[in-house]
């Protein structure tokens, strides 16, 4: 069984691009009959990872966005070009989800949620381009 | 996202994504008393939205008030629980909902 890939979309580095990202994802999920929870997790993961790129990365080129399917799994990849390496799986602090309100700071929550909710979450870095990939069972 | 305050209940409707943060911060900054937040028509939220709710809860708690949440769909409930927000907010579960277990 082969891998099916979407076109590579160029996404401007701005929060205003979220609407476009969600629209691409929604259409893809409909086409592939992705279940409600998986669609929710993919949206959340796209938002968290894309907004992290916009907020923290030093790149000035558009982010590329790709969707795909392999067997019973769907996935997306977001790639930021011309940036330093940052591995969200190991370099981000874990949030303090067990602490009382007055002692908590909300940092790191998005990545924590992806790690806990996604079927698979991976990261790679090559030649100044960092790619994050999230897979979800259909 | 639509936000409405009526009879001591705040209704959030639609999608609470990062692009909604600025208008949501303005809305929540005006809340003074304890509030029930009804999420029956909220389809989506991620950490940016959670951050606004968290900051508001922190402020209200320091003033002796609190927000409680009700009518979360199953995905929202899972996300709030994984975020540890079941310890930050009182979350009412709706036992009359025929879909609830």
Task: Describe what you observe in this structure.
The complex is a heterodimer of chains A (138) and B (101). In chain A, 32% of the residues lie in helices and 28% in strands. Chain A has helices spanning 18-31, 36-56, 109-117; strands at 3-5, 9-11, 63-70, 73-81, 120-126, 129-137. Chain A is globular and about 45 Å long. The model of chain A has no long low-confidence stretch (mean pLDDT 90). A five-stranded mixed β-sheet of chain B has the order 1-2-3-4-5, with helices on one face. In chain B, helix 3 links the parallel strand 4 and strand 5 (90-92). In chain B, helix 1 (21-29) runs parallel beside helix 2.
Element layout with pairings:
The complex is a heterodimer of chains A (138) and B (101).
Chain A: E1 3-5, E2 9-11, H1 18-31, H2 36-56, E3 63-70, E4 73-81, H3 109-117, E5 120-126, E6 129-137
Antiparallel strand pairs in A: 1-3, 2-3, 3-4, 4-6, 5-6
Helix pairs in contact in A: 1-2, 2-3
Chain B: E1 2-6, E2 9-16, H1 21-29, E3 35-45, H2 47-62, E4 67-70, H3 74-82, E5 90-92
Parallel strand pairs in B: 2-3, 3-4, 4-5
Antiparallel strand pairs in B: 1-2
Helix pairs in contact in B: 1-2
Summarize the structure.
The complex is a heterodimer of chains A (138) and B (101). By secondary structure, chain A is an alpha+beta fold.
């Amino acid at each position: 069984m082969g891998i099916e890939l979407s076109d590579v979309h160029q996404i401007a580095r701005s929060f205003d691009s979220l609407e476009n990202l969600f629209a691409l994802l929604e259409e893809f999920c409909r086409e592939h009959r992705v279940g409600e929870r998986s669609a929710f997790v993919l949206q959340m993961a796209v938002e968290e990872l894309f907004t992290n790129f916009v907020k923290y990365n030093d790149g000035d080129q558009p982010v590329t966005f790709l969707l795909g399917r392999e067997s019973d799994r769907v996935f997306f990849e977001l790639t930021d070009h011309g940036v330093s390496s940052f591995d969200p799986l190991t370099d981000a602090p874990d949030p303090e989800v067990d602490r009382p309100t007055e002692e908590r700071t909300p940092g790191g929550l998005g990545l924590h949620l992806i790690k806990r909710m996604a079927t698979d979450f991976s990261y790679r870095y090559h030649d100044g381009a960092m790619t994050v990939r999230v897979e979800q069972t259909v | 996202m639509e936000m409405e305050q009526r009879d001591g209940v705040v209704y959030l409707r639609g999608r609470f994504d990062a692009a909604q943060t600025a208008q949501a911060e303005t809305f929540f900054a005006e809340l003074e008393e304890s509030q029930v937040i009804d999420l029956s028509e909220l389809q989506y939220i991620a950490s940016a939205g959670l951050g606004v709710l968290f900051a508001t809860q922190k402020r209200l708690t320091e003033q002796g008030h609190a927000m409680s949440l009700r009518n979360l769909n199953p995905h929202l409930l899972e996300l709030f629980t994984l975020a540890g927000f079941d310890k930050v907010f009182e979350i009412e579960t709706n036992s009359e909902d025929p879909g609830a277990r």
